[in-house]
## 1
Amino acid sequence: MDEGSARSQPSEARLNDIRSAPAIVVMGVAGCGKTVVGEALAEALGAVFIEGDRLHPPENVARMARGEPLTDALREGWLDAIGERVAASVADGQKAVAACSALKRSYRDRLRGYCPGIVFLYLKIDRETAWRRVAGRKGHFMPASLVDSQFATLEEPGLDELAVTVDATRTVAAIVKEVLG
């Protein structure tokens, strides 16, 4: 990875943050592997897995299926649904791992409002790989035509955010091993 490669090698302190977090949100653009990494991470941690895509209201799914990107306003209820699920799991004493694009800092801040200890695992990927992966998916509502809008919306996590950046072109097993040690 070129731009931001310093952040693609997480520090031990950041890895400790994610290992001890009550909740982890696996984030990034469409096609970066949020679901497969999130499921594997949740299994390895004995955590509840929350699939953000399943929490979109039908109107959002229909809009995206037509190739229309979501606005900030359309994402609000969806982010709240994810945040509520994460908070409920943590309140029940369970670690939670959620898959959610969380593309903007304001979206991450909204999720933090539900669980201040959330750590974000940013799966960084290039546009071409993301496009190829999304174009190759079967039975998913997100068309490859929306990949560019995802990159246009993306605000990578700042150094002041509780976030770990990893190279999403690596295997799921390699990512989970790096994160969990």
Note: The helical segments are 12-20, 34-45, 58-65, 72-91, 105-114, 127-136, 147-153, 172-180.
## 2
Amino acid sequence: MMDKLQAALSTGAGVVALIALIIAEAPFFLILAGMAGVATLARFLYESWTYEERMEEYERKMQSYSLLI
């Protein structure tokens, strides 16, 4: 059990060190591009998940609008 835990910790530390090295050596614009990509993906997922709710609200507004006319 301790061997697995120790191996997992050393592997995790190695991964963290590798990620830190990549970030330190990566040009600034690549990091910004990656952040922009993540933001775009988050926006797309949000829009996809809330589409039906927004569509139902739109249809309710259109029905009440047509009743007002």
Note: The CA atoms of residues 3 and 64 lie 67 Å apart.
## 3
Amino acid sequence: MIAKLSVKQRIQVGLILSVAFVLVLGSNLMDRRHFSTIEQSVKSIYVDRIVVQDYIYQLQNHVHKMALDLIGEQQQFDTYHPQGRIDGLLGDFAQTQLTREEARLLGQLRQQFSALDLKDREPALAQLQRIGQTLDGLEQIQLDQGNRLTELSEKTLGVNRMLSNLEVVFLVIIAICIMLLIFYPVKIFQPIHWN
């Protein structure tokens, strides 16, 4: 037959249960924060990196077509006018979350496109080459930032896994303490008197 718990033992059980509750609650709040970080990283990888990579690809495609038109046999420099589409792509690009370097290069790209005069072949080809270099710089930023966000997500998942393992260990320890209190209440909490 199990002995009744004394007031002191009940306080200790309550204390252990309170600690368990606080640990589980704190762990849950940390898990939410980590999952929020991961969710933001995944969204940012798609919206701010993959979609932007498509904008850069489309801009490079327009630059390539303009360059082909300029060096074409017909010498009709003004046959391809994608300015409206380019402005739209640049506007969409500007709406994404930009790093400081991205914002600088995007501003530079806007200036380069606005200074582009397709009626003068040689300067236009040189300007298209500079535009291509700016687009290459923007593309490299996408790769670097995508890699950074992926590493952040992996790090956050690793911390989350570690915290989950610690939660399990703490819960097992607390369960053992509660079982000891229930099955061996008198032996554990009775003071030992040395004679």
Note: The helical segments are 7-71, 83-94, 100-114, 121-183, 185-189.
